[in-house]
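> example.struct
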């Protein structure tokens, strides 16, 4: 090709190279971190009293007044595999921080070796060949990529943010585990109560069936009434079997949460849970949630870490300088290994400029942008869900308090009526069949009250969990 043609093509080739250089143009994020002031909750929580001193304590489970529950949660926190998983994840994240920090420091290597070789004639400059030689080498090398654009520092800060999020994840896992153990323990207590009531109902239906059998024998009733009583007795037996299995299932779930075998629950004493005083909430829930909920704190750290990761990836589009140095000795003669002719060194910078990589850097940046959008979306989602959980928990507790009050009144009335019926039976004014009939209402009322009280405990735990359970970010 003529020189003139080459000269004309040179600017064109240079332009093609420059326009094809890897660049981040057009790549950006899309989501935005939600402002807590956007989350309106004043109307939903208008009837709630607020106090700055009402957050759950760190050992919130002690407010339920059951020493056995405290012991079980302590046991779970020591032996649960769930916590072992998050602990391992945190250790891995901390190791990645060390790796990111090491990338910012110079890399030194020492090498030494000895090689015995026989040179072929074609490799011998003298074209003799058949000669033997021993090459002795020793050197120290150094490589230090200058962080001109702060990319390696940003990568380290990103890893540090992820590690901090993993540490907070440990607190979130502890809170979740304690809440799950409390609910499982409460559900086991309810299952025991339902089993006891089922035993009472089985005895009641058996008594009715026995009375109907006697009436049928005496000709005082028809066979269909006796069969109805027998069917009720069989149904009560089926319910009793169901409640017995419910106790076993609830016990096994609790044992699993404790990180123990399925028989662990069988050695427990009956629960003595008391519903704690209704939680008082701070005056500004959304703002306070930022530092009180471990999952929200961890999500926020991941947003910051994703932002740093984007900054680190963007620096890959820019040129960089790497300082390289090496010094040592290389000799074929053993006695001259440390002599001046054998010593060498070299030092100098090397410049790297990304020109064309098939879109790899742009793909990495697009992935980092998407990672940031995902982290922001998850943070916003947790913030909205947290406020929703709190609002729902408060209104649920308020409703349950009213339901329990009404059910207690109804329960007192049915117990009073049952006592009156027993007195009339003792005085010979009522048949025992009437006593057994009204006992059914008493059992149903007792079960309804037990279910409401158990639900009140569970909702209190849900609210404590939603409030962060004593965590302070």
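> example.seq
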């Amino acid at each position: 090709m003529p020189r003139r043609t080459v000269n004309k093509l040179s600017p064109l080739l240079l332009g093609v190279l420059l326009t094809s250089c890897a660049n981040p143009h057009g790549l950006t994020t899309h989501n935005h971190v939600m402002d807590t002031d956007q989350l309106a909750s004043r109307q939903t929580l208008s009837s709630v009293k607020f106090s700055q001193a009402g957050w759950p304590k760190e050992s919130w489970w002690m407010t339920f007044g059951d020493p056995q529950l405290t012991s079980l949660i302590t046991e779970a926190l020591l032996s649960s595999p769930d916590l072992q998983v998050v602990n391992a994840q945190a250790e891995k994240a901390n190791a990645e921080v060390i790796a990111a920090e090491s990338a910012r420091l110079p890399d030194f290597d020492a090498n030494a070796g000895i090689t015995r070789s026989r040179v072929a004639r074609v490799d011998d400059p003298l074209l003799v060949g058949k000669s033997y030689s021993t090459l002795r080498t020793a050197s120290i090398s150094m490589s230090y990529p200058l962080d001109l654009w702060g990319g390696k520092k940003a990568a380290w800060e990103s890893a540090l943010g992820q590690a901090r999020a993993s540490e907070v994840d440990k607190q979130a896992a502890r809170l979740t585990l304690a809440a799950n153990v409390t609910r499982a323990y409460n559900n086991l207590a309810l299952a025991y109560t339902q089993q006891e009531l089922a035993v009472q109902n089985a005895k009641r239906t058996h008594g009715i069936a026995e009375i109907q059998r006697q009436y049928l024998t005496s000709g005082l009733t028809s066979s269909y009434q006796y069969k109805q009583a027998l069917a009720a007795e069989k149904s009560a037996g089926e319910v009793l079997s169901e409640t017995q299995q419910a106790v076993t299932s609830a016990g096994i779930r609790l044992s699993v949460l404790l990180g123990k075998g399925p028989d662990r629950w069988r050695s427990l004493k009956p629960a003595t849970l008391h519903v704690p005083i209704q939680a008082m909430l701070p005056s500004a829930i959304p703002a306070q949630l930022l530092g009180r909920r471990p999952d929200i704190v961890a999500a926020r750290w991941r947003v910051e870490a994703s932002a740093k990761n984007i900054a680190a990836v963007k620096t890959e589009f820019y040129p960089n300088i790497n300082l390289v140095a090496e010094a040592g000795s290389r000799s074929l003669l053993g006695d001259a290994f440390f002599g001046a002719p054998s010593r060498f060194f070299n030092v100098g910078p090397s410049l790297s400029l990304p020109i064309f990589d098939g879109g790899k850097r742009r793909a990495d940046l697009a992935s980092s942008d998407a990672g940031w959008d995902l982290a922001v979306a998850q943070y916003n989602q947790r913030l909205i869900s947290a406020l929703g959980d709190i609002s729902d928990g408060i209104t649920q507790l308020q409703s349950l308090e009213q339901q329990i009050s009404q059910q207690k009144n109804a329960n007192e009335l049915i117990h009073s009526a049952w006592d009156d019926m027993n007195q009339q039976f003792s005085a010979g004014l009522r048949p025992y069949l009437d006593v057994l009939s009204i006992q059914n209402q008493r059992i149903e009322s007792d079960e309804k009250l037990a279910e409401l009280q158990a639900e009140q405990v569970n909702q209190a735990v849900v609210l404590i969990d939603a409030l962060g359970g004593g965590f302070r970010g």
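> remarks
Residues 151-217 form the longest helix (67 residues).
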